[in-house]
Amino acid sequence: MKKSAQFLRSVGFFVTAAVCVLSTVGAQTFPTHPITIVVPFPPGGPTDSSARLVGKSLGSILKQAVVIENRPGAGGTTGSTYVARGTADGYTLLWGSTSSLGVAPTLYPKLGYAPLTSFAPLGMVARSPIILAGRGDMAANTLKEFIALSREKKLSYGSAGSGSINHLVGEWFKNEANVDMLHVPYKGGLPALNDLLGGQIDMVFETIPTVSPFLKSERLKVLATAGRSRSSLLPNVPTVREVIGGNFEAYSWVGLVAPANTPPETLKILSDAMRTAENDPSLQAEIAATGLEPVKSSPEKFRQDIESELGKWTRLVLKVKPTVD
pTM score, two decimals? Predict the structure, then answer.
C-alpha cells in the first residue's frame, strides 16, 4: 500500500510538472500565426499609416507577420466593435484612437463596447494637435479674421465623420468662439481636405500629417493649432488658446489595445513588444517624419489617458450637445 501511495504521488508530481511545462511552452509560443491589427478608418490617413509603421516593427520583434485590416465606419466604432466582440487570443488587435476610444463612447450610449472594460490597453504610440486650416482663397488670414468673417456669414467646416474628434473639436470651437458654422461630415479626413482644397468647404479641423503635403500650398491656410503649446512643426502658428483664451486643447492620438479577456501571458508578450518598438529610434524617426509626435507609454499610462479623455469629452458633449447621425 505504501509503495502504491508513493507511486501515485510520484505520478501526480510528474503530471503537475508536465502541465506547468506545457502551459509555459504555450505562452512562449505566441504568436504562432499572423496577427491582425484592425484600423477602424479608411486607408491613407495618419491613423492608417502609423498603424502600418508600428505593425511592421512589431512583426520584426515578434517574428510573425502583422497584417493591417481597415474596417472604417461610424467614426471608428464599426471596427472597434468588431474587435471587442472578437476572439480574445491576441491575434486580433485594435488600433485605437481619440475618436473611437475617447469621443464616440460619449456620443453613442448604445455603443457595442466600453473603452475601459472591453479592451486591455497596450500603449499609446503617437499624437498630433488638431489644426484649424482654412480655404486658401478665403478673405481671412488669421484666426481672429476668420472668427470675424464667420460672424458676417455662415461658413462651413468638414470633418472625418459625424462623431469623430474633428467633428467634436469643430463644435467646441463654435461654442468657444461664439460662431455658427455648418458641419459637413465625410468618410475620412482626406475627402474633407480634398473638398477644402477644391473650395467646396471653408475649414477643416485636422491633424498635421493629413495637411502636411499642402502646408506650402496657396489653396490652404493654417490658422491655429489646438495644442497646449505651439507645435515644433508649426512654430509660427498660434494656438487657439493664444487667440481666444480658455482651455481649448485637443490632440488626435493613436495606440494599440487588445480585447479585454486576452490571456495575461499574451498581453505581457504584446506589451513587451510594444515597449521595444517604442524605444526603437528608427520607428520614432519614421513616426515623426509623418508629422506625428512619437509617444512612449505603458498599459497603465494608456489606461489613465483613455480615462482622462473620456471624462474630458463627456463634459464637452454635455456642454455643446453636438448633432450626430
Answer: 0.83
